[in-house]
Design goal:
alpha+beta; two-stranded parallel sheet; two-stranded antiparallel sheet; 6 helices; elongated
């Protein structure tokens, strides 16, 4: 079972976003049946079975085995992934696009970049899984607390300079066997509880 599955098809996204079916997907991180899930989600077995059949028809759960139980066939199913994320591709033309956001320092642009990463990496993951290969990626995640807006501005300038220098050093547009990677660097304030002091609307 992959840790994450990116949902690209609109119909599958609509099915997964249903609250009951989303709960069933979470419960099905380990195999289960309509009977075992009914008491957990507070629904009749027949109702749970209907939802499981719907999830299965959209490729979000898969059959593990069938067991004979009290004259009936009990179907044991499991989620196809540990967790799910919906690709912007599911929204078609309505999906966000960095090219349509002119303000490169806006939160809108950062969201558009993140959405594009989900869409592109989701496509590449699907292709890699289909061919039995591992997708080469690079991720860096860190937290930094700035003393002042001036320090934040200096950090941004140094980071931009460092990235520009590294790209210039390693980029080879004429390499016959090379492969182009997309590099994205972003930063945003950490969310705080709603009861705490509101986060100031500042850009890094």
């Amino acid at each position: 079972m992959p840790a994450v599955e990116v949902i690209e098809r609109p119909a599958a996204a609509a099915v997964a976003l249903d609250p009951i079916r989303a709960r069933l997907l979470a419960e099905l991180a380990t195999p289960g049946s309509a009977s075992t899930l009914a008491s957990k989600v507070g629904l009749a077995r027949q109702k749970v079975n209907y939802h499981l059949r719907t999830l299965e028809s959209h490729g979000l759960v898969r059959l593990v085995e069938e067991r004979q139980r009290r004259g009936l066939v009990e179907r044991i199913v499991v989620a196809t992934a540990g967790s799910y994320v919906v690709s912007p591709a599911a929204l078609g033309e309505a999906a966000t696009d960095p090219s349509r956001t002119p303000d490169k320092l806006s939160a809108d642009y950062l969201i558009a970049l993140a959405a594009r990463a989900i869409r592109e990496v989701g496509i590449l993951m699907r292709r890699a899984n289909a061919s039995g290969k591992r997708l080469a990626t690079l991720s860096i995640d860190a937290e930094v607390r700035f003393r002042s807006p001036a320090d934040r501005a200096d950090f941004t300038a140094e980071l931009a300079s460092a990235v520009t220098t590294l790209v210039a050093r390693y980029h080879d547009g004429s390499a016959p066997n090379g492969r182009t990677f997309r590099l994205m660097v972003g930063a945003h304030p950490l969310p705080v509880p709603e009861s705490a002091e509101p986060v100031r609307e500042e850009h890094v």
